[in-house]
Amino acid sequence: MARIGVFICHCGENIGGTVDCEKVARTVAGYDGVAYSIDYKYMCSDPGQSLIKQAIKEKELTGVVVAACSPRMHEPTFRRACSEAGLNPYLCEMANLREHCSWVHEKSDATTEKAIDLVRMLVEKVKKNHALQTIKVPVTKTALVIGGGIAGIQASLDIANAGHQVVLIDREPSIGGHMSQLSETFPTLDCSQCILTPRMVEVAQHPNITLYTYAELESIEGFIGNFKARIRKKAKSIDEKLCTGCGMCITKCPNKKIPGEFNEGLGTRTAIYVPFPQAVPNKPVIDRLNCTYYTKGKCRVCEKFCPTQAIRFDQEDEIIEIPVGAVVLATGFTVKDTGFFPEYGYGKYRDVITGLQFERLASASGPTFGEIRRPSDGKIPQKIVFVACAGSRDPAKGIPYCSKICCMYTAKHAMLYQHKVHDGESYVFYMDIRAAGKMYEEFVRRAIEEDGVNYIRGRVSRIYEKNGKLIVKGADTLLNAMPVEIEADMVVLATAGVANEGSEELAQKLHVSYDEYGFFSEAHPKLKPVETNTAGIFLTGACQAPKDIPETVSQASAAAAKVAGLFSKDELSREPLIAVVNRSAPPLYSTCVGCFMCATACPYQAIEHEEIRDRKGQLIKTVARVNPGLCQGCGTCVAFCRSKSIDMEGYSHEQMYAEVMALLND
Amino acid sequence: MSTLLKEVITENTGIRIDQCYQCGKCSAGCPLSEEMDYPPSYLIRMLQTGNADLEEKVLRSFTIWVCLSCETCYSRCPMSIEIPKIMDFLRERSLVEHKSNRKAKKIIAFHRSFLKSIERTGRLYELGMLADYKLHTADLMQDMDLAPKMLAAGKLNIFPELIHDRANLSAVFSKTIKKKK
Amino acid sequence: MAEFEPKIVAFVCNWCTYAGADLTGTSRIKYATNVRIVRFPCTGRIDYMLLLKAFGEGADGIIVSGCHPNDCHYTSGNFHARRRWIVFRSLMDFMGIDVRRVHFSWVSAAEGAKWADVVNHAVANIRDLGPYDSYKKLAQNTEREISHG
Amino acid sequence: MALGFYPGCSLKGSSREYNESVLALARAFDIQLTEINDWNCCGATAAHNLNKDLSFALPARILALAEKQGLSEVLVPCAACYSRLATTLHELKKEDGLRTRISEVIGLELKASITLINVIQLIEKYVLPALDGRVVKPFNHKVACYYGCLLVRPHGILNFDREEEPQTMDAVMAKIGASPIDWAFKTECCGAGLSVSRTSTVSRLSGKIITDAVDRGAEAIIVACPMCHSNLDMRRKSINEFTGSPSSIPVLYITQALGMALGIERKELGIQRHFVKVEI
């Protein structure tokens, strides 16, 4: 005979002000199997919890229903309290009288009636609950970090320094990401490479970090603590063990006119190349799409000149499989190119460039060795226009959000330009200046007040070329929207930061959700900023949304702390609310007929085949079995099962029927 | 019924004036900006305030009449605000309230002569329209050199082309622009 | 005569619609009291036979609601739910069950206001349709026949 | 090939040569054009400037007459008329209430089922596929294709080419041997509806267009809109006075340019009617 205790919470006035809690307690007390029923001001308070614990012991309760707020809020609290009083925590259920009743209805009899119904449903459900034990799973203490920009580098170093193994992969031939392309960084104007390259080297030399560049995630399976990642190491066409990075091959490669990715198309590279001089690892790869040997069948000049015979034209992609316990996504972002802007010439004007291209022009290691020169004729621009919000905050172009970093880097660009071209004139067209950050506002003011950058509040409507000048048509909205026309030598568009191409596919591989713009979604916008909704997978940096370096680094360290926390235990506890296939006495063994419809429905490959044999080892039947480590408890298999042989703990057929029946038969 | 002009605009056109975040791209691209008393984004700002004096200025502005409906503003507006439709609405409203800008007299006279010509004949009778327009603007000399050249080139009809069902057309006018409110 | 107050059962998933209904509460958006929410882990878990059971026991209407397509916490549960619903609906229709009494919708955890709309819409709609006694009687008679031979 | 035809007022008056060249081209490619019976003026800028319902009713009457006549695809060469008809069609399709109201105003049944095409679409669809071997006098000149406003904007309604730097006219001209130039004023406004009431505006706006085309070496400006043509051609004297650098660049309808390349008599194409002499 069930002995259920029901505890009605007033939540101060939150529930009590709308629902007649006393009446609920009184009514429920009369139900079959209810041994105790009481209402109280705050059930989640210490005295409230003591009330429950005491009742469990004194009334020898076999189940508990707490009628209070949403179970999404306090279910763990009350289950813990039950457990402390010696009652299996899974024999505790919550009725949601606050979010689903008192807060959404006016005070009335109907509201109290609904509260009574909700409690009755859960009383009937809890009678069918089973005592369950948490599931323990082992943890593989290796983290996979995807993406080797500053986010991935920082996360890898932090995890590795905490004493855990890290596998860092990057799809480019070198780590470094966008930060390695930057000239100087706001608001301190320190050189980006100077602060980044030591970290890159540290990654390469760290005993706990295994680095695979030119590598991508092929697939991943498993669950928190127990993933199995398959990584495609793309063929670099060299033997990395033999290559010394002497660079002879690069000097000799006859194919020198390929637009270089690192210089954002403003410089060229060879077909066998390292992206930039400080690359890590500093060993070349052959770009097979542009290599004459691969496209035309002959050349092999690099092979001839390589002093260590390290060139491998027949190398193939290699797939390696590694067990990991956690994944950190740090795949970064990209910026829209100038071709995205019809009104700014569809990218056809060579002297209309992106902010990232300007970084390369301003960088001492860039194609112009740090001199600001026009890509078209190499002349130093005397008049330069910067356009903020190019694509960002533009719903008509499909990018309604603010890209966050452009205000600051545009101020930096204008400043760098004024530092390098003293007699030059610079203009910034902006809509709002978003300089929220330590020393950020001061930085922008410096650009305006000390470096004489002309800020004009208005958006540029059109850019066209006339007699070698770029005509920029804007308006000054602080001067009654007066039209402003500037004949510029060069225009820099602070183009919108957008998700990397292929981010959706990657998210789907990892079962991580993403927003409509392709950025990965955090599990909670405020309280879980580095978690994803898939346990064991974390994110950091601009793959979640555009962000600057300080923010990226802090988020990377945060993700690393989460991973370290996960790796601090040898075993993980998991909720036992999972599917089970029934078992019964011989000769039936199970009602499962082995159709494996469940396996087709399961998104987690959690359904296994189990062979039932007699003592002689003779096969009697094959039935389904749920791997408790893999099952996430969605219950799709339960709805699919034709013979009702698979059921779900916590949401069993019996429980759900009991709930519905209780609701409709008062 | 709302009394704020911006809300009246929303009720009649579905366009939400408060969507504008004042980037000024419309004013920057408008070919007529420099001839306007208030460039488009500025005019929208005036409407956003809900200030009665500013609304009055909008209805009395020259802007709404010099706007050519070239649609450049709308095509580049990041918020896809249909400014030409707003201008259409404001013009009609300005006329109804007898607030049209003095400088726009000729523009309005032209539109009126144009419609009068259509109402009478069904199709545009350019010579008739021009005569009517000149009568109303007292600008007798305007385009005097054009007409003979047009006649010579066979570009001007001496007589109007009349459509058959002119009764139908005159009904259309009396049910729309001539409807008594 | 007092207005007919329909009994409506809502089968919702834990991750989107249940959380969305929580948000309706936190936002203090009011809606009709006629709905009782039954929490499932995922719409994929919902066995549509339970809908028939609910009608048989006297429900006048049912709401089924989960995550938007592509937003399922379990990746694809809501797609399974939708696919099975399409099949099940035509079966219900064929059997003569009034399919207008089942409201299928997507409400995300961020759509508190939408949940209130879904409920109010369903209540108004089912109020117009009137009590669903016919199926209840049929189901109970059938049950009696079966148990009494 | 049979199409409905809405010439509009300009083509019957001040832009007669556009009508002549459209008809000449249609004859050359066996396209039967059936004029809509008893059509009226679309209301142009004047109607939508003064009264919304009238601005829908006038084009709606035209659409209704075309439907009554059983025409399904209607050619509208005038970009301004096209814009009014397309906008009306768009709004009528969007809003059933409006359709009922306007149908009552015009006293005619209104289904809003017509498909409209402009002259360039006509050329792309019916002329280019049959063009092989028909060009006898390649139009080997540098041309500035001028689209103006109403051919491409608003894209949501017209769904033709792209709003910035459109290409379709350029592609057609290249097919008949011309070299279209890349220039900056393809879709800038010429002053259109202010032609009579604010001539100075027209001189300023059209002046910029002509100057840019000439500066970039164009030998002719190609248009597909009677308003653009009359502003750039008939108003040339005042434009020249305004810019201070007189230009004699001719302005041709795309149909005239095609006709010339096909060897059709210049007179048949109405070229003698231009104010600015066509000496190419």
Task: Walk me through this protein's architecture.
The complex is a heterotetramer of chains A (666), B (181), C (149) and D (280). Chain B is mainly α. Chain B contains eleven helices and no strands. Chain C has five helices and four strands; from the N terminus they run E-H-E-H-E-H-E-H-H. A four-stranded parallel beta sheet of chain C has the order 2-1-3-4, sandwiched between helices. In chain C, helix 1 (17-26) crosses helix 4. Chain D has 280 residues and is of the alpha/beta class. Chain D has helices at 8-12, 16-28, 44-50, 52-68, 79-94, 96-106, 119-127, 155-158, 168-175, 199-215, 226-234, 236-243, 254-262, and strands at residues 2-5, 32-35, 73-75, 115-117, 142-145, 179-180, 220-223, 251-253. In chain D, helix 4 (52-68) packs across helix 6 and helix 10 crosses helix 12 (236-243). The two termini of chain D are 32 Å apart. The relative contact order of chain D is 0.15. At the B-D interface, helix 6, helix 7, helix 8, helix 9 and helix 10 of B face helix 1, helix 3, helix 4, helix 6 and helix 10 of D.
In short:
With 666 residues, chain A is of the alpha/beta class.
How would you describe this structure in keywords?
C: about 150 residues, alpha/beta, Rossmann fold, four-stranded parallel sheet, 5 helices, 4 strands, globular, D: about 280 residues, 2 domains
Radius of gyration of chain A: 32 Å
Oligomerization: heterotetramer
Distance between the termini of chain C: 40 Å
Shape of chain A: globular
Ranges of chain C where pLDDT stays below 50 over 5 or more residues in a row are none
Q: Just name the CATH architecture of chain C.
A: 3-Layer(aba) Sandwich
Please estimate the helix content of chain A: 25-40%
Count of runs of 4 or more consecutive helical residues of chain C: 5
- What percent of the residues of chain C sit in helical stretches (DSSP H or I)? 40-55%
Average pLDDT across residues of chain C? 90
Low-confidence spans of chain A = none
